[in-house]
Amino acid sequence: MLFSSVTFLYAFLPIILLLYYLAPGVKAKNYVLLLGSLIFYFFGEPVYVLLLIFSSISDWLHSIYIEKHRGEKKAKAALISSIVINLAMLGFFKYTDFLIGTVNSILGTAIPKTGVPLPIGISFFTFQTMSYTIDVYRGRAHAQKDLGTMATFVCLFPQLIAGPIVRYVDVAAELEDRRHTLEGLALGIRRFAFGLGKKVLIANVMGELTQIFRDSGDKSVLFYWLYAISYTLQIYFDFSGYSDMAIGLGSMFGFKFPENFNYPYISKSITEFWRRWHMTLGGWFRDYVYIPLGGNRTTKLKWLRNIAVVWILTGAWHGAEWNFVLWGVMFGVLLIIEKLWLGKALEKLPSFISHIYVMFLVVISFVIFNAAGLKGVVSDIGGLFGAGGIPLVSSDAVYYLKSYAVPIVLAAIGSTPLPKLLYGKLSDAPGVVLEPVAVGALLILSTAFIINGSFNPFLYFRF
To answer: What is the sign of the dihedral through the CA atoms of 250, 254, 258 and 264?
Structure first.
């Protein structure tokens, strides 16, 4: 079930909010959230609800055992068991067919693929549960004794299928006792409405253009760049919009989820870009992979190895295709180059030059990210630079450039802090009550687009 669907907006969400606020205490509210979350997941993955339940029970039992035997070898064995189970689930569902296909292509074998569908959100909830047991082992979190509360954390529908990656320590106190205020509800509705608008009014429009390009038989260099820019805008507004909706929903239910994006397209280095893009994933890899490997407090060779490991894993986390691994490797190499020497040079350059440098590489990276395997990477990157005799301009490219020029410019402006600054000044104006009107209008307009449009995917459901 998509957040940007009529079923969710006008059936599921109102019902669950009503039942939630009628529930007498935090424990009862948690059970309403748990039941609602399982129903929410059931709409998209009926069978895999059992996977969520299994994951909840498994990490609940492991964490209790770890805490009971903390400091003993038994605790470490339980931690390893928990991690192996989580990685085994992720590996089987996400990477088995990828590995089979790789073996078949290298050895010329014909091993049949499993054809098992990928459970929605498995990359997110397995990382969340792994961070929980690791934090219990490290003594940063107490094991949750109540299975219902633990399952509520694992299955919490606002962030279940696409993040942000919420660690147990982020919400441990709120799972036990949280305040519900009209202000929190209003802030949640506003944040959700803005996220919905980003997704429906901008990401979906940019997505239409990327699909038009894919379907067109009249390719040109101009059309490839139009596609690359539109996809770069689509993925930002799609994912950040979904994160905004998740954070807004969390606020409606009394939770404060971590931020996931901070205007990454205004960055002046790739290092800065990754401090602003998908921040909860970056933080997860930093705390549970990079630092345990030694971080930067080791020899230079091991430090470079640590960066490489993190970025290969980051690429593979996003998808079971070689283009995702290449995407991760690309950023790993760029970050190493910046850390070794280019970073200081970028600081001395005029801001607009360093910004052009970042956006050029980011656009190229997302072309790699969205390609159909390595062959698709070669084809799409080649198309950007006229390989194979592709014409510079085509009639389709000119037509769609004229048709989508205004949405692209508005989306580009929308990816900067400028709209937020202008909105803040307007909403703070004395005697003007614009915010409720703006939020209501945004919800109505988004609903109209959802009803009238047939293009409403969510990109990160693939991961």
So the answer is: positive
Diameter of the chain measured on Cα atoms: 73
Question: Looking at residue 324, what is its pLDDT?
Answer: 96
Selecting among 142, 278, 318, 355, the annotated active-site residue is 318
DSSP H/E element including 177: none
Q: How confident is the model at residue 429 (pLDDT cuts 50, 70, 90)?
A: low
DSSP per-residue string spanning 250-262: HHHTT--PPP--S
Burial class (CB in 10 A: 0-12, 13-18, 19+), 42: middle
Active site residue 69: no
What string of H, E and C letters represents the secondary structure of 1-19? CCCCCHHHHHHHHHHHHHH
Peptide bond into 164 cis (omega under 30): yes
Q: Which of 263, 271, 261 is nearest to 346 (CA)?
A: 271
- Can you read off the two tokens belonging to residue 27? 């424990």
From residue 215, give the alpha-carbon distance in Å to each of 95, 208, 224, 371, 407: 28, 11, 12, 14, 20
Q: Are 3 and 446 in contact (CB under 8 A)?
A: no
Residue with tokens 């107490």: 142
Say which amino acid occupies 312. I
